[in-house]
Write a structure and sequence with these properties.
This protein is α/β, with parallel strands linked by helices. 49% of the residues lie in helices and 12% in strands. It has helices at 35-51, 55-78, 90-107, 119-144, 151-178, 201-204, 236-243, 258-265, 277-285, 297-300, 308-329, 333-343, 391-398, 406-412, 425-434, 451-455, 462-478, 481-497, and strands spanning 11-14, 27-30, 181-186, 207-214, 223-224, 227-232, 247-250, 273-276, 349-355, 361-367, 416-418, 447-449.
């Protein structure tokens, strides 16, 4: 195939022969010589590198900026005769301020990769984290240290942060969106097609699908989901050079063809990343694609639900968290009970059978949020604006306060702090018939909150259950104490902002 290089694509430069191992005849990819194309390529590479930087590095960057703001605030307002009344030093203040900012940033999702893909999220979550951290630091200094905190220092520190950190993030956002990574899909069968979902920034803003590679030469030139079939297996390497392909995704059909696999793996020497469609989907969207899922996924997923060390750590975390939660919230239970009784007739608590670990059922406890005749006509999906919900119940549901009695379920071992939400046996029976691998979500204990809860809004349909299952399976594969802490910290922000 003739190479038609355009501006922004990689140029082919013969690699000088060094050895006689057979690799000296292969071309090497280099950045184009055009200054604008070269600059765009480098900014795109830098943007994607910063996007994939681990969240602790971004957190450290924020803490340094906040510390700089506090230091400048002290230099400007405190180290003067008028500031002699302030007895707390700038080092202590910056320690409190940075710790408060880190907590608030985690709560409001500032360190999620998805935040860096949308400018509105960057601005909103930076503002929320900064204002909340300032209030939290002020309360800690005043109530627990019995000291006064300078509002002018807080204001200047917040101004310095908002002037630097969001600007850097917005720059990364622009670089990533202007220089999306180009990828190909090998395979044109129905299961290899990847329509870009409208809800997914991780795919639509980070990657650009150049087209498909077919195993059948007769399909060359046709369109699939708005993308052309660019060529056959023999054209794969030439297309990678022309289109500056960074990733090759092998579809389920092509994954069983030895020639397709050899051709795809042959592009590794061009600097392309080669993976299968399921793995690509998982890494980009942080969920498991049910449409591309096969039973052998469970063989290679290395699930951690059976590891004794993992189970012990998770159980200790559950007992400690539920005990602390009960101690902190029990004083508010009488007030909640009183409001429920004043609003409607019926008991304060609501008990229901749910499906738990390995399909075993247990008795789940909640504060009652519906009228006592809610299920007079049988069980039904609960909707967002369900007319069966009482006036007080609507506020309890919105603040998730109706879930507080489930802390007892966690303490006795029926549930976990983090995991898939437990469903009723009637719905499990229905959904397991309609959705493949639905029962596999019961490999671990159900949770009070979970990966699906912080990433997907309230749902009440089979399609919602399918999307949440994709997120639950991703959590089951990647479950860890660090991820549980992240989800737990993110949950209050989800209640306040809604899932992303």
């Amino acid at each position: 195939m003739r190479s038609n290089l355009t501006e922004g694509s990689a140029a082919l430069v013969p690699c000088p022969p060094v050895t006689t191992s057979g690799w000296d005849d292969f071309p090497r990819l280099v950045w184009p010589e055009t200054p604008s194309a070269s600059r765009r390529a480098w900014t795109g590479a830098l943007g994607h590198t910063l996007l994939e930087t681990p969240w602790p590095i971004w957190c450290l960057f924020d803490l340094l900026v906040v510390t700089l703001g506090v230091y400048l605030g002290y230099r400007t307002f405190v180290w003067t005769p008028e500031g002699a009344w302030l007895h707390i030093g700038w080092v202590q203040t910056s320690g409190i301020q940075t710790l408060a900012f880190m907590i608030c940033g985690l709560v409001f999702g500032l360190y999620e990769q998805q935040t860096l893909l949308r400018g509105s999220r960057i601005v909103a979550r930076s503002l929320l984290s900064t204002l909340s951290a300032a209030v939290l630091a002020y309360v800690v200094v005043y109530l627990f240290m019995y000291q006064m905190h300078s509002r002018r220092v807080l204001f200047l520190a917040a101004s310095v942060y908002l002037g630097i950190a969001p600007a850097v993030r917005l720059l990364v956002c622009a670089w990533v969106q202007n220089c999306g990574r180009t990828f190909l899909i090998v395979g044109t069968d129905a299961r290899s097609r990847l329509p870009i979902p409208s809800h997914c920034d991780g795919l639509s803003r980070r990657y650009r699908l150049a087209g498909y590679i077919t195993l059948n030469p007769l399909e060359i030139g046709r369109e699939i989901c708005g993308r052309r079939v660019l060529g056959g297996l023999d054209d794969l390497e030439d297309i990678c050079r022309q289109q500056n392909i960074r990733e090759i995704v092998v579809g389920p059909g092509a994954a069983h063809d030895s020639q397709a696999l050899r051709r795809a793996l042959g592009c590794l020497k061009l600097g392309c990343r080669v993976t299968n469609l399921s793995t690509f989907y998982e890494q980009v969207l942080s969920e498991v694609p049910l449409n591309h899922l096969e039973p052998d996924w469970f063989l290679f997923a290395d699930l951690k639900h059976y590891r004794e060390s993992q189970l012990i750590i998770k159980r200790v975390f559950d007992v400690f968290s539920s005990a602390v939660g009960l101690l902190l919230t029990l004083p508010f239970w009488p007030l909640i009970a009183l409001l429920i009784k004043l609003d409607s007739e019926g008991p304060v608590f609501y008990h229901q059978i749910r499906v738990g670990l390995n399909g075993r059922t247990f008795r789940l406890h909640k504060f009652r949020t519906m009228c006592v005749t809610a299920e007079a006509n049988g069980h039904a999906w609960a909707s967002l604006d369900d007319p069966r919900v009482t006036r007080v119940g609507r506020y309890l549901r919105k603040a998730r306060l109706d879930e507080l009695p489930q802390l007892w379920n966690i303490l006795v071992g029926d549930m976990s702090i983090v995991g898939p939400r437990p469903e009723r046996p009637e719905f499990v029976e229905q959904l397991s018939r309609q959705i493949d691998f639905y029962n596999e979500r019961h490999l671990i204990k159900p949770g009070l909150t979970g990966w699906a809860q912080i990433n997907y809004p309230y749902g009440a349909s089979v399609e919602d259950a399918r999307r949440k299952l994709q997120l639950d399976l991703w959590y089951i594969k990647h479950m860890s104490l660090e991820l549980d802490l992240f989800i737990l910290l993110r949950t209050p922000g989800t209640v306040f902002l809604g899932s992303r």
